[in-house]
Design brief:
The chain is mainly β. Helices cover 5% and strands 32% of the residues. The radius of gyration is 22 Å and the shape is elongated.
Length: 231
Amino acid sequence: MAKTRPGKKDLDSYTIRGTNKIVRAGECVLMRPTDTSKPPYVARVEKIEQDNRSNVRVRVRWYYRPEESIGGRRQFHGAKELFLSDHYDVQSAHTIEGKCVVHSFKNYTKLDNVAAEDYYCRFEYKAATGAFTPDRVAVYCKCEMPYNPDDLMVQCEGCKDCTCGIKLQGLKTFEVSCRYHPACVGVTIEEAKKLDHFMCAECSSDDDIKKPQTTFSSSPGSDSKGEEIHC
């Protein structure tokens, strides 16, 4: 943690202006953007300090939305996905609009209901280079894309994992698991929810009928392991 400069003192907490919500170091906040037509910025508070004029400032570590990163938003990025960047800043505490929660990817996929203040993060991001940590991620389906928790997926009952490598900008590795988007196997989401079983083309014979199951893994990426592929 950075040392407090002369004439300043550390604060344990800050009450968001106009509310009774209390912010402490280590918590995540929504911060007012300069362009009010844009969504609020998301940051993690690293330190709160007050100067001798009672001005309160916060040292923050910014989260980036996918569209703010060098590679931009991709198909597999969820609506509530954020990247924890190496970009630190100091802002007036008065720009804090509210609190939010940035979950781990695994915990986010276990939420029964996603509230407006819920986000998730599965990567750290270097703002200058566009590099991600970890630089590996599991991919799924015939389209070979990482898991998007906003999308329904169905799982083949005849196989577990196959290992095929692909490359995506900024990421190096991938293991393809036999879970599929309904559209990629020729069924609608409504049909996928109603039918009971699914066998992928590799596992089914010519006489098999492919029927997506009603239940599916909420977090297919949580237990997968990647194999490094250099970009």
